[in-house]
Amino acid sequence: MKILTPLVPAMLVSAFSAQASAAACGSFTIADMNWNSASLIAHVDQFILNNGYQCDAELIPGDSVPTGISMIEKGQPDVAPELWTNSVKEALDKGVADKRLRYAGNALVNGGEEGFWVPAYLVKEYPEMATIEGVIKHADLFKHPESNTKHAFYSCPAGWTCQITAEHLFNALKLADDGFEIIDPGSGAGLAGSISRAYERKQPWFGYYWSPTPVLGKYEMVKVDFGSGTDVDEYRNCTTQPNCQSPKVTMYPPSPVHTITTESFAQNEPEAYGYFEKRGFTNPQMSKLLAWMEDNQADEETAMYYFLETYPDIWQSWVSTDVAKKVESAL
Fold it and tell me: Which residues form the ABC-type glycine betaine transport system substrate-binding domain (predicted)?
């Protein structure tokens, strides 16, 4: 008995160590996508997980479709923090069905947002401009830069997918019958610049845009209500199709923007997976952060520190008090 007694605490220590090791956060990879919002989210995730959960999260380069396919076929990376899933929905759904992937949560809780917009100061002056009927009623305010008889509608640059949807909805709303003409801004910068110029001069503006973006972070815009509701089937089968001959009026449906993980990650790292289930940004929150990045010419790492230091009320709602204290200490 005297010989066995010293082994008892040793066995307990060993069991405890094994349990602690199993509960500890391990090593995994997060895709650092090549657009600002996704890269910012990836840096935020890495900092919180490494400092709050004692994980070993590594950022690796990523891109939308290739990352999704790589996760399905190779199981790497472990996490895609912001994936616009419509573009690879069929493949992702099959990956989930085959128990290779999981939808962990919503990176953008509202989904990506598209629509026809007018400046908020116009709606303040003319409340009816929050609807398409009100815009048409005041069509004369939207001066065409090259015509005295036409009204301006700013669309997407030629070659962009949103050029197809915006033109179909322009036609479905019969805006040409009310004197509107589509203006091609030439580029994304040209479209953003047209809003910026109008806003700084407090001039009317009417056109297509999307969120989250720096532009909608800087300038308060109102999405025009078509009064039609959202017909998802119409949008998928006609509005988005180049050869659709008879488009009908529908509001843009939200674009799902998920955080995707591999199934093995979800099983091996339950605490980290739980974080991804809770973490998410609203479009206004992300638009403001993107606007700050643009105004300050900040990279994603700098913006990550700015976000964590400036908006603790947002990120602390995703984690426990204990984790929040560890992250604050690291900051």
Answer: 29-309
